Structures are given as structure tokens and as C-alpha cells.
Amino acid sequence: MLQQTQAATVVPYYNRWLRRFPTIRSLAATTESNVLHAWQGLGYYARARNLHRCAKMIVEKFGGRLPNDPSKLKSLPGIGLYTANAITVFALNRSLPIVEANTARVLTRLFNIRAPIDSTHGRQELWKLSAKLVPQNTARDFQNAMMDLGALICTAHNPRCQICPVKEFCCARDPASLPRKRKRAAIVRLTESHSLSTKEGAVLLERCHHRWRGMWMLPPLKLDGLKPSILRRPIYVSMFPFTHHRVKLRIFRQPAREIYTGSQRWFRTDALGAIPIPSPHRRAINALLA
Ligand code: SF4
């Protein structure tokens, strides 16, 4: 949950998640729809799908127990080098390197690394340094300290070098200019049009296939063939970010009609709380049905 998401946002989700799926077996046994419902609002839904697949695989291959060997952990969906090592270090105090946002910033500055940290070369350098520095018997304390140093002292803006406990070893000449990153992809603007059709206390939704696979959204609307007067009057407009996209969501009212694709369904409006709906569409539905 913490990948790409701040801890303050995650905490209520994490607590609700553990109440709903208290064991690996309970997560493995539930449906993808329940998993997406518990995750809705956190975004980056691949994480939820991976966690679900991961729980199933742990039950099938490892008898329901999380393996304690990093190479076995890495064979599970959604678990890469960082997560496998972090689990092994923090749960078992094994001596392994960890490179995440905070430790990457501290290492980059301590050793004045000029290579972009999101380049292959930059990443390799950081992992090598972390492996060299991590102590044999106190890896858990060491990695905690590195993360805290990055979060509290060696911050992204205005690092507090005067009170830094490792300032005498630090090689950074201009700490605020580090770490370097590759140029970001330019923001792409998109406009997406969807329809709102209601009848007798129900709303028409369509199962998503791509971005929000497995969730339910207002049906996409093909604009060709619609009267220009309708196109001028969306009943709802909002903006939302998605990776490097900025999406303008426009909703147009459409008359209730027979379902014309297999992936559409009428849902009672008082039952919408129980199904997974991506946040931009849930906000639109709540505003329009209020
Ligand atoms: S001295 Fe400054 S730049 Fe160097 S590690 Fe400490 S806080 Fe970061």
C-alpha cells in the first residue's frame, strides 16, 4: 500500500484491510471484486491484484506461510528485490541491502553520486553501496536508521546538515541538487466521455477492462452520432491524474435503454457501496445522484 502512497493516507486502509482479510488464507479465498472494493480510493490497482495473487500462491505453493527466503519471496507476484529484502531485514534481522526513496537520497548525498538514481547505472551503484554498508548483526537497526535519517534530517528540501550525525563523512557539495533523476515524461492531456443512465432507482454501469480492470464505471460514450446540443452540455466535468496523464472526465445524460454490451449491468443505487468503482467515477455518481 505504501508504494506511491503516503503513510497518512494508507493507515485507515491498512486497518480496514486487516479487519476484512485478517490472514493470508482469507485473502486467498476471497474474490477479486472484494479485493478491489477494499482497495478503491488507493489507486494503482495492480498492487491489489498482485497482493491477491500473491496470497493465492502462498497458499498453493508454501502451505499458507510467507516464505523467509528472499529468493522465494521474489518469486511471488508484486514482490521485487526491495520488498523481498525489506521483509527479510525487518522481520528476521538478516543482513541485506535496501534501497528506497529515503535511503537512496542519503546514499546519493553521502557519496556524492551524480548518476540519475532512476537509471540502471545509478540504481546498481546504490544497491552496491547499501550492500557494502549494511552490518552483519544489526541490519534492522541500520536500515531503520537510514530511513529515518532520510525522512527527518537528510530531507529532499532543506536538508538539516548542521545537526546531521554523519556530516563528517558526507561528500555532498550541493546536497539540495541531489539525487538527480532522468527527465520525466511530459504530462499528456486526455478527455474521456461517459454516460449516466438511470431507471427506477438503478444506474447502468460497465465492467472496466483496461485501466481499472475488474471494477465498474459509468459506460464510455461514443460521441459520433450524438446531437451537437447534447455534446455542448455535459452534466458533470472533473479532472483526475493517472500516471503521467491528466484526464478530463465528462459525463453526459443518456436515456435508459436496453443493455447492449455483455459487460453492462443495472445496479440499484443503494447497493453501489458494495461494488468496486474507481474514485473519479464514484465521485461523479455521488454528485449526480445526490
Ligand atoms: S550532511 Fe547533509 S547532505 Fe550529508 S547526509 Fe547529512 S543531511 Fe544529508
Structure notes:
The chain has 290 residues and is α+β, with helices and mostly antiparallel strands. It has three domains: 1-79, Endonuclease III, domain 1 (Orthogonal Bundle), CATH 1.10.340; 97-183, Endonuclease Iii, domain 2, CATH 1.10.1670.10; 188-289, Nucleoside Triphosphate Pyrophosphohydrolase (Alpha-Beta Complex), CATH 3.90.79. Helix content is 40%, strand content 14%. Strands 2, 3, 4 and 7 form a four-stranded antiparallel β-sheet that branches. Strands 1-6-5 form a three-stranded mixed β-sheet, with helices on one face. The radius of gyration is 24 Å and the shape is globular. Iron/sulfur cluster binds at residues 106, 109-110, 153-154, 159-161, 164, 166-167, 170, 172, 175.
Kindly give the count of domains: 3
Q: Can you tell me the residue ranges where pLDDT is under 50 for at least 5 consecutive residues?
A: none
CATH homologous superfamily grouping of the largest domain: Nucleoside Triphosphate Pyrophosphohydrolase
Architecture of the largest domain, CATH level 2? Alpha-Beta Complex
Structural class: alpha+beta
Name of the CATH first level of the largest domain: Alpha Beta
Indicate the mean pLDDT: 93
Quaternary state, please?
single chain
| Strand elements, count | 7
Cα-based radius of gyration, to the nearest Å: 24 Å
Tell me about the biggest sheet?
A: 4 strands, antiparallel
Shape: globular
| Head-to-tail CA distance between termini | 31 Å
Helix content: 25-40%
Ligand roster: iron/sulfur cluster
Topology pattern, helix = H, strand = E:
HHHHHHHHHEEEEHEEEH
CATH topology of the largest domain: Nucleoside Triphosphate Pyrophosphohydrolase
Q: How many DSSP helices?
A: 11
Percent of sequence in beta strands? 5-15%
